[in-house]
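Section 3.1: Structural characterization of target chains.
Under the original work plan, the team committed to producing a structural model for every single-chain target entering the pipeline before any wet-lab resources were allocated. The record below documents one such target. The sequence was received from the expression subgroup and is listed exactly as submitted; it comprises 675 residues.
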Amino acid sequence: MKFQRASLREVQRYLNDIARSFIKKSGADSIAIYTCDVKTKLLYFLTSVGNDIYLKNAKILRLGRDIPVPTTSKRFPLLLKPGGKYKLFSNIPGRILIIPVVFNGDTIGILMVQFLNRKLNAEQISKINKESLMLGVCLHSYVILKTMSDEVTGLKMVDDINRIVVTELNPERLYNKMYEQVKTIVRVKNLRIDLYDREKNSLNPVFFIHNGKREDGHPQIIIGNSKILSEIFRRRKVMLSPEYKRLLKKFNRAELSSDMDVASFIALPLMIRDNFLGVLMCWDKYRKNIFTNSAVRFLKLMANQSAIAIYNARLFEQLNRAINDLTLLYQIAYHISSILSIDTLLKTAVDLIDSALGNLITTILIPDEKNEKLEIKAITKNVKIKPEFESVLLYRGIVGEAMKTKRLIYVADVEKDEKYVPAIDGIKSEIAIPLISGTKVLGVIDFQSNIKARFDLMTIDLLDDIAHRIATFLENAILYEKIEKSYTETIKALVLAMEVKDSYTRGHSERVTELAMKLAERIGIADGRKRLLYWAGLLHDIGKIGISEAILNKPGALDEFEFSEIKRHPVEGARMLEQIEGLKEVVPIIKHHHENFDGTGYPDGLKENEIPLESRILAVCDVYDALTTIRSYRKPFSSEGAMDIIESFSGNRLDLDIVKEFLKMMGRKKIIRGF
């Protein structure tokens, strides 16, 4: 047979045939054939032929410990008799002849030949030794082919890993592929991949296989808390079973509660140049010496290539995260930049943060008017705050500390922080960031999690950027509300001056405005238009300033001239306000709030949708307040009576749809005309 063209299986079959022939010629009862790892001096069972199967039960042996080391230089056999010092052979009947197979001065294999009843002299041993030469040649061929086969398998594995490096950027799929590749090198059911967290000086188990099954939820291990991991991290070299077991003996067992006391073990550092990424560990609880030189070599190659893949995957993950972070910052700026209501701005910001980050509780707190307490202005939906903590003293708790010191406060474990205020159940970590604009602290944005040490540096940087953006737009909203408040007070003073002339309508404008705003909210008018409606409600009768007090307070019915004077007030009001830049958009609403839906109103006889929506809303609310308050010429109607009249006006003087919503808002119970 030409071995150079034979397959590994064919050589092994031929080896068995030669072994059977050898038994017949030598008179032996059985033979066991082992290959030998030159560096580790481990013997691996290959095959056996004969009646006694005991020899093949020992799958892995160590030269010098389990069997004596033959004199390899002269390829001289050793004869072991029953009752010798080697426990492995103490119970084997008969005699065992150990014949080394030597190539280039190295023992590449061992033949163990058993003779149950036959005694051997030197001449017979020499003859048997010569007869074993063919077995040695065949075993040598097998070893060469096995080495080549392992090389091919290893190179294919390395090629597979290279393809993973190029194509696989999903960490979870990458870890699974790494496990599959390890199994092609050595059959293991236990594997873990831990990645190094530089901030916490810990190893985080990102992938854990135990007895062939995936397990999750294993905690991070601080490197200093495990002597084994400390040694791996310090040396950054492959660690095998002997070194592992030596460390187990050296260190106190109490320190090794998270380490693994196993039969076979290997730890491979995952390195990029001098950068330690983590460690890949494999182990077997029962089988010894499973990590051969060849296996270790290929596992090291795989670990090196996998480190590149992990590095690329982490870079890709960080890039995606950076893109998502920038997107969130843009969305926050885009959505809140034009919001001038403080409450709406803060609630919108919290909603955007929650939808993007999730698993966090976000709270924004603003000092009260007396600057004594921090009040919650916006918080993650469906979060229950303990009633006693709905507001906190200005400098109390972690948020108070951030407010006081004007700096970010991060508490990785709130149970260990005496400043922590337990306003929400189940919180483990918290970060509070002051909302600073210039030198002024406007409030605090607070993030809480039910996970200890939840916030890494990248997340903290993102949250800090979010706080800066919110602070910028919050300052604009605060400034606007101050201006708006001042503006409102000025307008109310103007309205009051007008109402002084008409004692019967005092408070009318504010009541109409309040009703109009509620109705607008029910109808679903946009915030910008509601703002215009608010100003229009306050100012809708401002034109009466130019009307005679005698006409305004006349106790009886108005004559034609007097009524024509009263009808001037929408136009007069519009003329007055169109000179004010900030109120130009309010002018059409005020001018047309006395138009009738059927076109019979004044001043321009507009009808239906020609009349501004805000004017139609004001018209309904104006009529209701006029009917339910005392006038110089009549007593007030009851609310139900007023609603009856308003309903009778629907479709002619008043917009039918708006009347319908108004009556629902007022809780009308009586059903008339299909309402």
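The chain has 20 helices and 19 strands.
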